[in-house]
Each structure stands twice: as structure tokens, then as C-alpha cells.
Amino acid sequence: MLVEIETVLMLVIAYVVGLLSVILFNRYRNNATQTMVDYEQRFREYESMLVDMKIRLDTMELRTSVCDTSRPSQDSDAAAGHKVRAVRKDLEQEGKGLVEYVLKLLADGPKTSKQIESVIGRSREHTARLMKKLYEFGYVTRDIGAKPYTYTITENGKSVLSQVASVNSGA
Predict the structure, then answer these.
(1) Which of 4, 9, 89, 139 could form a disulfide with 157 if both were Cys (CB 3.0 to 4.6 A apart)?
(2) How do residues 1-23 score in pLDDT, each as one tens digit?
């Protein structure tokens, strides 16, 4: 009879220890999972802040370049050359020849941002920023009636494209 009580007591103690181990393990796992969720949420917030700051920086650069290119000049040819150089200087940050390439694409016909993105091989965000800059410079128009937007080159964009081509051929 004594052996049976010791066996039962050992089984009860083993059960209680096992139960406590499972409870502690679940608490630790939930805390670790919650910590990972917190880190992921912070990462998304920081990423959003970085994107916002990049957009603000691009806007400030665009405003600065618009102020630089809007200064009147005595000689219209010099002003045109200055404007082309300013456009190339400001927009070449997007990649060597990328602006000219996009304007040439649009000279062939209207394109959506998705089509432009696939041709130039850049991210959706990068392409959207580039097209926004070109739109704000007045080199492309945006058809907001269609989703996604359809971009078309303007006369101003065509003249810049021809000026850049003449500058390149003269260089």
C-alpha cells in the first residue's frame, strides 16, 4: 500500500510540474511573439517616416530647381540651354539618361505608370516620384480619369527633348 501512495504522489507531482512548465512556456512564447509584433510595427512606422521625409526632400529640391529655372535671362537661347542644363542636373539624379528615355517613351504614345515602370526597371515608388517631377515641371500631362494615371508628353516636354537632343549632338 505504501508503494502505491508513493507512486500516486510521484505522478501527481510530475503532472503539476509538467502543467507549470507548459504555462510558463506559453507565457514566454506570447511575450516573445508580442515583442516581434512590436518591432515589426515600429519598423513599419519608421519606414513610413522615411518615405515621408524623402517625398518632402524631393519637393524641396523641386521647388529649388523651379526657382532656379524660372529666373529670366536676356538671351532666349542661353535661357533654353540653361533650362535644359537645370532639368538635366535636377532630374539626372533619377539615373543617367532616364528622363530623356521616359520622355522618348511618351513621345511614342501615352503610357501608364505601370508600363513605364516595367520598361525602366525601377520600383513603383521611384517611377511615381519621377513622373510627379516631370508632371510638375510641365513636361507630361496626367489623365486622372483613368486608373492608373496615363501620362502623355506635352509640347514643353517635346521641346525639352529636342533641346537635349541638340545639346547631345552638339557635344
Answers:
(1) 139
(2) 566 888 889 999 999 999 999 99
